[in-house]
DNA sequence: GGTGCTTGTCATCTG
DNA sequence: CGCAGATGACAAGCA
């Protein structure tokens, strides 16, 4: 049995924690006790271990072992029983952190992991961070360095810091083998160990292909996991989009693990190198959007910053897949903490019930990555819809004149309108802002202490305006479940990014518009201007409608109604939205109608030309026929007189054509008949014909 | 300023 | 009956 070393076991861990917290300037009013109370996110792997699955040799990664060291979670915290934080070494950490007066205390596992990652990465270099990140991504999202068996076992009561070696050393010796991703990430120095671990796993699952490539085995293992693990089978039962998010990213990370490590390190180097403006130093717009663009352009190098911070997803997954769910808070408690709204907004990749409670502001970094890791091509579009812009909101908060005290104040005062101060932050603490980042911030600055203010920011993002009366505008149901909030956030944030397009642009955009593909909105949004807004757009801006006009118009009926029902909108807003939709629909209908009318007119003109041509042809034919008829009449007349000129009666005198007519009988003989008889005979024949 | 065209909007009809 | 689309009529904007 091998145990993982606690991240704080590194002597520099706490120092780096302090550094990070200081440079971040954040105070996230963390209840570390709660954080420490959370059961380890390793139950997934514990389940695998207990099930004798392929991870039987995997290390359980837990940042919350009872002994203060990384250890087997099942030995650390019996399922369903929460450890006493004060009785555990973590309490010392908490006390030390508090004693240092650090304004930032990780509240959540994500925070802790983030801090830990930075600490490990700075202490160990890129590799340490890489290993931690890899382990985090692989073993349930908790970055960890693997200690050898000599490390203090859980529950032995040893001081983890005293017993710990550097995470790097531990990581160098034994990379967290909980998932192949870690080996892929650290393939440089641990090929043998990787193979060993993989071999063990394959033996455990009686896998036939032991000689295949590591990647092949990795993929095979990953494919076999859902079949052997009950928890993962739940993932398979999820909808496709959800299943993809829970399964695909592993391959993604495996493929891009190296880039992930670099990006992650770069991220935190930026953090470290710019203490005062650390968060601003992260060119969110560039990094984030760059990742988006990369993801859209290429599926191979798409994940930059996003992937680097994506490991938290496994933390999510591991926690979410925790069978006993002891770490979850009750929904009531969840709703009682407004700051969790951000979590809910950020947890779309999971089911509403799977949201990670307590994820605070710092959680947005990994969460961004969690959604971005899949954003390779098509998935990017969908994930953008649901998740990314939520994260933009959060990250933009960091880049937009981020005032840590203000933010902490936001978190402390859920009902205040302090979220609106984010507007003022545009010209307050922000040193320099690129246009792009500013656009992002304006469009998606949705981080506030409560959902209401969040919605206001989203409104701002949607309409690019301000909030003269924020409390009267859009209201979001933060009392509803997290899924609601997630979807809500997805909707209004997603709406942000086509909003200021000119009608033509909107039209052109909307033609390629897909409810599952909105990546264009990112770049469109960056070019956002208030110029040439239509009347409805201005109206929407005035009322802070959190949706784009184009979207309001083009949204399917069901989606439209669903959208209205899911948002707390004033009657005025609803009325305006319906008017916008009606006018937009009618505008399109009028355009279609006119086009159709023009088409009809053109068709009629064409028909008229064709008919005139046909008429002319017929007229000419008629003239020709009449001419032929006249010719034949003339010939017949000539022939008639020629015949009579040659006829002689019994006396040898010429026959008068005025008294006689030629009559052809049925047998072909020609008779000379007096006209009286001929006319009477014709009458009789006519009568017979009429009788017949 | 008048004119014709385009476009948006409203009212009404239609399926 | 409600709704979305179609369409006639009107007005505004523009060249």
UniProtKB/TrEMBL annotation:
Subunit structure: Heterodimer with MAFG, MAFK and other small MAF proteins that binds to the MAF recognition elements (MARE).
Region of interest called Disordered, as start-end residue ranges on this chain: 71-92, 140-179, 201-258, 413-439
GO molecular function: DNA-binding transcription factor activity, RNA polymerase II-specific; RNA polymerase II cis-regulatory region sequence-specific DNA binding
Organism expressing this protein natively: Zalophus californianus
Domain BZIP: from-to ranges: 576-639
Protein name: Nuclear factor erythroid 2-related factor 3
Gene3D superfamilies: Transcription factor, Skn-1-like, DNA-binding domain (1.10.880.10)
Pfam families noted in UniProt: bZIP_Maf (PF03131)
Residue ranges crossing the lipid bilayer per the database entry: none
Function, in words: Activates erythroid-specific, globin gene expression.
SMART domains: BRLZ (SM00338)
């Amino acid at each position: 049995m091998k145990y993982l070393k606690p991240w704080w076991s590194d002597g520099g861990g706490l120092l780096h924690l302090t550094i990070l917290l200081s440079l971040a300037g954040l105070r996230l009013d963390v209840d570390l006790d709660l954080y420490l109370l959370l059961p380890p996110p390793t139950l997934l792997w514990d389940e695998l271990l207990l099930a004798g699955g392929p991870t039987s040799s995997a290390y359980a990664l837990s940042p919350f072992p009872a002994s203060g060291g990384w250890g087997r979670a099942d030995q650390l915290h019996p399922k369903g029983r929460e450890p006493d934080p004060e009785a555990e070494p973590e309490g010392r950490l908490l006390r030390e952190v508090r004693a240092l007066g650090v304004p930032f205390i990780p509240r959540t596992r994500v925070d802790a992991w983030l801090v830990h990652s930075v600490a490990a990465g700075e202490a160990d270099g890129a590799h340490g961070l890489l290993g931690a990140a890899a382990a985090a991504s692989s073993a349930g999202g908790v970055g960890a360095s693997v200690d050898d068996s000599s490390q203090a076992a859980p529950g032995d009561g040893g001081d983890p810091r005293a017993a710990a070696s550097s995470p790097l050393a531990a990581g160098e010796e034994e990379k967290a083998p909980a998932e192949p991703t870690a080996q892929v990430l650290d393939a440089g120095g641990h090929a043998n160990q990787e193979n060993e671990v993989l071999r063990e796993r394959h033996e455990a699952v009686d896998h036939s292909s032991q000689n295949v490539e590591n990647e092949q085995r990795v993929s095979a293992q990953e494919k076999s996991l859902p079949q052997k693990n009950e928890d993962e089978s739940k993932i398979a039962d999820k909808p496709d989009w959800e299943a993809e998010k829970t399964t695909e990213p592993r391959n993604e990370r495996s493929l891009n693990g190296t880039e992930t490590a670099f990006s992650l390190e770069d991220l935190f180097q930026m953090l470290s190198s710019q203490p005062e403006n650390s968060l601003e130093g992260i060119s969110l717009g560039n990094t984030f959007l760059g990742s988006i663009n990369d993801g859209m352009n290429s599926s191979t190098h798409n994940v930059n910053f996003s992937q680097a911070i994506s490991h938290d997803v496994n933390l999510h997954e591991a926690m979410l897949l925790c069978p006993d769910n002891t770490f979850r808070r009750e929904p009531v408690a969840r709703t009682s903490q407004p700051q969790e709204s951000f979590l809910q907004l950020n947890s779309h990749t999971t089911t509403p019930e799977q949201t990670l409670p307590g994820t605070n502001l710092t959680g947005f970094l990994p969460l961004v990555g969690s959604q971005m890791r899949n954003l390779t091509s098509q998935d990017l579009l969908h994930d953008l819809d649901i998740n990314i812009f939520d994260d933009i909101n959060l990250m933009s908060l960091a880049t937009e004149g981020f005032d840590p005290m203000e933010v902490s104040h936001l978190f402390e005062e859920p009902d205040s309108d302090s979220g609106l101060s984010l507007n003022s932050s545009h010209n307050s603490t922000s040193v320099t802002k690129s246009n792009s980042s500013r656009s992002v911030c304006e469009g998606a600055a949705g981080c506030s202490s409560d959902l209401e203010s969040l919605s206001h920011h989203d409104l701002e993002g949607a309409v690019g305006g301000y909030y003269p009366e924020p409390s009267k505008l859009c209201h979001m149901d933060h009392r509803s479940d997290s899924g609601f909030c997630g979807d809500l956030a997805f909707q209004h944030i997603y709406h942000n990014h086509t909003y200021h397009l000119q009608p033509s642009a909107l039209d052109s955009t909307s033609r390629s518009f897909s409810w599952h593909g909105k990546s264009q909105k990112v770049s469109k949004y960056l070019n956002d201007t208030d110029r040439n807004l239509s009347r409805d757009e201005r109206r929407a801006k005035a009322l802070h409608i959190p949706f784009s006009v184009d979207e309001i118009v083009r949204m399917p009926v069901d989606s439209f109604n669903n959208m209205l029902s899911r948002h707390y909108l004033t009657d005025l807003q609803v009325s305006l939205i319906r008017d916008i939709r009606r006018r937009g629909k009618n505008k399109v209908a009028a355009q279609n109608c006119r086009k159709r009318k023009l088409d009809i007119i053109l068709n009629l003109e064409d028909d008229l030309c064709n008919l005139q041509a046909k008429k002319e042809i017929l007229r000419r034919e008629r003239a020709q026929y009449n001419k032929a008829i006249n010719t034949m009449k003339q010939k017949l007349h000539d022939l008639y007189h020629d015949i009579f000129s040659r006829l002689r009666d019994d006396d040898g005198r010429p026959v008068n054509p005025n008294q006689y007519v030629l009559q052809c009988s049925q047998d072909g003989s020609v008779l000379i008949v007096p006209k009286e008889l001929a006319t009477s005979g014709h009458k009789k024949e006519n009568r017979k014909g009429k009788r017949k």
